[in-house]
Amino acid sequence: MIPGSFEYHRPSSLADAVGLLSSLGDDALLVAGGHSLIPMMKFRMAVPEHLVDLQDVKSLKSISLDSGQISLGAMVTQAEIILSDELHVACPILREVSYQIADPQIRNLGTIGGNVANGDPGNDMPAIMQVLDATYILTGPDGEREIAAREFYESAFFTARQDNEILTTIRFAAPAAGHGSSYVKQKRKIGDYATAAAAVIVTMSGDTCASASIGLTNVADTPLWAENAASLLVGSSLDGETIKAAADAAKAITDPADDGRGPKDYRTHIAGIMVQRAIANAVDRAK
Amino acid sequence: MNDQTPISREERIEKLQGLGSSRKRVEDARFTQGAGNYVDDIKLPGMLFGDFVRSPYGHARIKSIKTEAALAVPGVLAVITAEDLKPLNLHYMPTLAGDVQAVLADEKVLFQGQEVAFVVATDRYAAADGVELVEVDYEGLPVINDAFKAMDDNAPLLREDIKDKMEGAHGPRKHHNHIFSWEEGDKKGTEKALADADVVVEELITYQRVHPCPLETCGCVASMDKINGKLTLWGTFQAPHAVRTVASLITNIAEHNIRVISPDIGGGFGNKVGVYPGYICAAVASIVTGKPVKWVEDRIENLSATAFARDYHMTGKIAATKDGKITGLSAHVLADHGAFDACADPTKFPAGFFSIVTGSYDIPVAYCGVDGVYTNKAPGGVAYRCSFRVTEAAYLIERMIDILARKLDMDPAEIRLKNFIKKEQFPYNSALGWEYDSGDYHTAMDKALASVDYNALRAEQEENRAAFDRGETRNLMGIGVAFFTEIVGAGPVKNCDILGLGMFDSCEIRIHPTGSAIARLGTISQGQGHATTFAQIVASEIGIPAEDITLEEGDTDTAPYGLGTYGSRSTPVAGAATAMAGRKIRAKAQMIAAYLLEVHEGDLEWDVDRFQVKGNPEAHKTMKEIAFASYNQAIPGLEPGLEAVSYYDPPNMTYPFGAYIGVVDIDVDTGVVDVRSFYALDDCGTRINPMIIEGQVHGGLTESLAIVMGQDISYDETGNIKGATLMDYFLPTAVETPNWETDFTTTPSPHHPIGAKGVGESPNVGGVPALSNAVHDAFAHKGLTHTQMPHDHWRIWKTAQKLGLTD
Amino acid sequence: MSEININMTVNGQKIEASADPRTLLIHFLREDQNLTGPHIGCDTSHCGACTVDMNGMSVKACTVFVGQANGADIVTIEGIAQADGTLHALQEAFRQHHGLQCGFCTPGMITRAYRLLQENPSPTEEEIRYGISGNLCRCTGYQNIVKAIQVAAEELSVKEAAE
User: Fold this and answer.
1) Where are the domains of chain B?
2) In this predicted model, what pLDDT tens digit does every residue of B36-76 receive, in sequence order?
3) Catalytic residue among B281, B386, B507, B684
4) Chain A partners of B723 at a C-beta cutoff of 8 Å?
5) Which DSSP letter does residue C78 get?
6) What is B308-490+653-802's CATH number?
7) How many Cα atoms occupy the beta-carbon half-sphere of B418 within 13 Å?
8) Separation of alpha carbons B667 and B754, rounded Å
9) Is there a contact between A189 and B128 if contact means CB atoms under 8 Å apart?
10) Which residue of B lies nearest to A42 if distances are taken between CA atoms?
11) Strand partners, B232
């Protein structure tokens, strides 16, 4: 499996990277960790004439936590997310999800920016960003713009990002202190894309659910924010019946493909099970 | 020359590191330092690289092939098509099963991934660019990927090249997509047993198409030296000598002008037994260009074009008394061979040793029949870590026994114990014509049941089932029992050959003057550790420490002829040849010792590493001393030197057996199976190196786990192969793989010189039914009789759903 | 397409070369640098046979372009033993505990374990199994690999304590 030929560029600033994208036009693709793009190039399903490598754009490597706001540079790797204790304290679901992405080698190169930006419905981070109501910051020739993660995904591999834009930063408010979160992913084996997966964040007020957010991975051609499902939980005591109803509401918005992971009905069912289990974990972890 | 430091007899035995020693492997030093020499590591001056244009269609006519654009790519030197091979009569090659296979597609393609053109370039990047630019115009044809439809009246004709040839390699063909019919046993008697039985169980049991998938793919380097007329082929060959003979027959290059070398091989598991179009094309390209040509397939090519395994649709029927004594067995198989019959079976056995299907049981009458058919799938049908269709047979009988037990409400262990061939019945002649050389099944089974505390497991399962029914758990526990008998070590030349080559094997031993040695064998290791274990056999036979013995295999210019390594045949056949060659050396050594000690030969006895005078062990000559004498003294009546060669034709197969018990917990809501524990008792006769045996068992069990829980080479209705990368094709990681518990009994083979039987494939043969039975057992009380593998998550959930266990 | 200049440190040696940018790091190491220890098993970053250490991290060299590795510090299986030829504890332990059979996955497996034990010097069995989950082995069933890594971890910590 041999990729086609291309010119290789390694800009050292964001401005240079954006400039290259603009000047090279449609023939250029960005590479971050490369673990989605390079296999596609080896299959010759992607044949860019130019490859713009972002690894030297140091401004994209930062992790910052500032008065409840978390900003992650697009080039922060999954391994770096796992290693950040500060991030883990503020938002533990990030470490939990990162550990369930691919394998150690791939997490060393795979970036959060690549994971959220390439639009693969199998990627795990986008569902987390649905749950966190994250904002993506894109930089293009006309400067910066922001777009909500919940608005970003259009269909498989199609997103609101323009070809000449770079997704530079992912920003979200740290979940409330005392929240509970969980990402439960069923996969054929460790490292596989999800058969179905669910991300849940809840806050509790005594025995009552004060807030809830639910996201789903790989059960539609985009990540899903299960708004209705979450709203059923709020105000309830999270009894079995309510959780079941939330799972059913989540299942109702799925539309998974038939693939080696299973037929549609199975993957829909698993989405419901993942939601139930993620809720149970999140509630356990909430204070 | 007398050894100066006297050491005890025990120390002398220890020093040999012979039979029974868990000797560390000599191969490991190079592998752990990255210094292995696999085929893709070979680099020769001026070496070119070949890459295939492959069919995107499952069945299509080739209307045209345009190569101009590819030839314009810098570095591309040639594009070879069937048209170029025809004048050489190389566009088809013989398969090991008596069929022919297209080397490059001739007028039509018959499976997705079939080789259509071979692009030769200065490096692999240019070759790949050339492949992209070869334009092939196809006209799609109707696809058959369901073996049950292959012989329908209106089924499309697949093999136009043999459409008028209705007499196949194994008798008449009854349909244009039929390959062979093969039967064994007493059909009428079996029908009568079924008609007269108290109970009959019948089931269609499919063993899905899988692939051996060694971590190294197949490949070769061909180098034609035009000056001296010699063709050298390095490649991933499990049978280098057979490759040389086949290469000579099809290229008309004299066999002495072909040298085949198997370098280090990164796993084989049957994938590397066959001869593939890449080997032929690389050789042709080297002959044409005069330069060495390398071809190495990538993983997708490996999974979609070289050597699948299984794809057997087996209908089993068992007749039994109401108290569970089996009175007859019938088995019919519809065998899907893909587009060409490229099975790697001994010639007279188109379905391999499937007739071992009576298993470990004393079944008075049996019949089996196999029909092979063509479909639009890849050719192959290799023995994936098993001896020629033995794992299919073991799966059928071990599932059927469980189904019978369920029908009679008997315990699966109990029904096996009731029907085992008894120790005193060996040698045992099976109803399907095999002579089982030895066995002690009851002892093995009893030991296994006691080791796992089987009764406690069943009691725990009762509690689990009750808790499930009360809604306290959503997990079901399954206990899988399997008892297998393998038939390995092909085999006796009187009935086993491949392309007319008798399946003997060989060993040549040379003792050097200073008392070290080299041994060469006709086999080739692919991870089994031959350089370690065969040296142990030599050590025990001739008393030279294993560490002083070099072992070589895989170079046809230096090694004696042998049929190679597959079907667990190396230890039973080449291991026997090694022992026999050692004995020849010892016989000559005895004569030399007698001369040196000035006694009669008959006055000497062998002791560990020396001949000593009976009753006077102080008077002795060590093998080291004898070796030196053989080179430096003129001994009347004896030729100088000390070497021997043995070609061993085994009198019978060997019959390793084992008792396996696995415990699984199944999450009914997700279909996820957790293998809680697995106990494997193997009886492979004399154990040469327990460490290596255990390693083989771990690996084979892991392969069985992969097959049962996920491996599936399937095709969609248009002939597209589904999931031919390692994202989809299930190879378990360390996370999915449990710890395996190994155990053994020892029942030596009575006809093998050292009593060894072979073990490499047993864990795959026994592991598959044990794990599948465990999954079935979890649902048995809810009415599950049988469901087809793989038992992956979604299929298990569907099973639970059908049984009404899901929401 | 124009070639690019490559500067890298490989097993402690500085190297300069020029390469087609599409050259995969694994091919650059195996074919240009003659370091054939790391292997190609799957081509799609699933098997880990091509694992090398890059800037102190395990990576799969089949899915890295040589340009991406420009300037990097690379260690392959050939660079794991000490310069005087003394084997690394992992190399010894794999042999002592039969952690390999065909040897094809071994270079990637040991190179991964080499980094794992620096990330986590005393891993549990479960941590080892997760830590090598990007490396497939078809022969051993992992059991003896896990054992070998456990033993090497113990030996390395004993050695460290002694120093």
Assistant:
1) 9-36+505-648, 39-141+217-265+272-305, 308-490+653-802
2) 999 999 999 999 999 999 999 999 999 999 999 999 999 99
3) B386
4) 260
5) G
6) 3.30.365.10
7) 18
8) 47
9) no
10) B128
11) B223, B259
